């Protein structure tokens, strides 16, 4: 390897896919089946799929490539484990609620979700969890944009290992962005404030800097860090209806 293990952070799709593959292998069952038959139902995600069923294909949204051509998620190595989940905006909110302890989960699943909030490495103001990126709250906008910048996403960055790992906290901001050709998503939540926000697009929206006008109140002031008023201080209402199936 270019760097010693545990010294640099570099985003890698295959690493996330391998993590999912190994988790499923440790349980002795295929990844797709574990997700669709066990995990999604346990989380109450009734419109979330790895393989979109035939009777839902009419709801399966197309994304749009950079040249404005309709596209869907393409097959690839470890595609199910890396980027294979298709969901709706309403189910995404349900998933965020589960991460904030708001869903009726059994103790095993609750502890498993909480384990993803443990911090293992620090890069600037960001602490790396299992997928989630964690920030002290209130979170200034420039800190959030720096942590989601192309330099952090696309380049190797030296990190500090946290020994022991940082325990999960409620008064923090957790976020995650993701994009494939034609699709982009960004989610953010603050457990202590019951704030959650999701942004699912049909074009690439790789990080919050690409959509500053839609970032929620992240600095605790009731304003988007100078971007204007935004009424997200109170919890968002539960979504009443599911829309199109989107890539998550």
Ordered list of secondary-structure elements with their pairings:
Layout: E1 8-9, H1 13-27, H2 31-43, E2 63-64, E3 70-71, H3 79-83, E4 86-87, H4 89-99, H5 107-115, E5 119-123, E6 126-128, E7 133-136, H6 141-147, H7 150-154, E8 157-158, E9 160-166, E10 172-180, E11 183-190, E12 195-201, E13 246-247
Antiparallel strand pairs: 1-8, 2-3, 4-13, 5-6, 5-9, 6-7, 7-10, 10-11, 11-12
Description of the molecule:
The structure is a single chain. The strands form 4 sheets. The chain has a 7-stranded antiparallel β-sheet with strand order 9-5-6-7-10-11-12. The protein has a two-stranded antiparallel ribbon with strand order 1-8. A two-stranded antiparallel sheet has the order 2-3. The protein starts with 7 loop residues before the first strand and ends with a strand. It has 7 helices and 13 strands. The chain has 248 residues and is an alpha+beta fold. The chain is globular and about 50 Å long.
- Counting DSSP E segments of at least 2 residues, the number of strands comes to 13
Strand order of the largest sheet: 9-5-6-7-10-11-12
Structural class: alpha+beta
Our Rg estimate from Cα atoms comes to 18 Å
The main β sheet shows up as:
7 strands, antiparallel
User: What is the 3D shape?
Assistant: globular
Which range best describes the helical content: under 10%, 10-25%, 25-40%, 40-55%, 55-70% or over 70%?
A: 25-40%
What is the first-to-last residue Cα distance? 30 Å
- Average per-residue pLDDT, rounded, comes to 83
């Amino acid at each position: 390897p270019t760097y010693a293990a545990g010294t640099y952070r570099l985003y890698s799709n295959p690493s996330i896919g391998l993590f999912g593959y190994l988790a499923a292998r440790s349980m002795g069952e295929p990844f797709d089946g574990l997700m669709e038959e066990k995990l999604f139902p346990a989380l109450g995600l009734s419109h979330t799929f790895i393989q979109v069923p035939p009777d839902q294909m009419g709801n399966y949204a197309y994304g749009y490539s950079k040249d404005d051509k309709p596209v869907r998620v393409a097959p690839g190595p470890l595609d199910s484990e890396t980027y294979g989940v298709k969901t709706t905006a309403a189910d995404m909110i349900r998933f965020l609620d589960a991460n904030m302890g708001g869903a009726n989960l059994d103790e095993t699943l609750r502890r498993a979700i909480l384990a993803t909030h443990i911090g293992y490495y620090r890069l600037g103001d960001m602490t790396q969890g299992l997928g989630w990126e964690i920030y002290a709250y209130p979170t200034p906008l420039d800190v959030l944009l720096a942590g989601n910048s192309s330099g952090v996403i696309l380049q190797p960055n030296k990190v500090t290992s946290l020994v022991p790992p940082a325990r999960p906290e409620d008064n923090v901001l957790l976020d995650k962005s993701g994009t494939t050709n034609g699709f982009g998503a960004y989610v953010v939540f603050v457990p202590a404030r019951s704030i959650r926000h999701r942004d699912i697009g049909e074009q690439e929206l790789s990080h919050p800097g690409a959509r500053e006008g839609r970032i929620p109140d992240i600095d605790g002031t009731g304003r988007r860090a100078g971007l204007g008023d935004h009424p997200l201080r109170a919890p968002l209402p539960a979504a009443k209806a599911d829309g199109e199936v989107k890539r998550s």
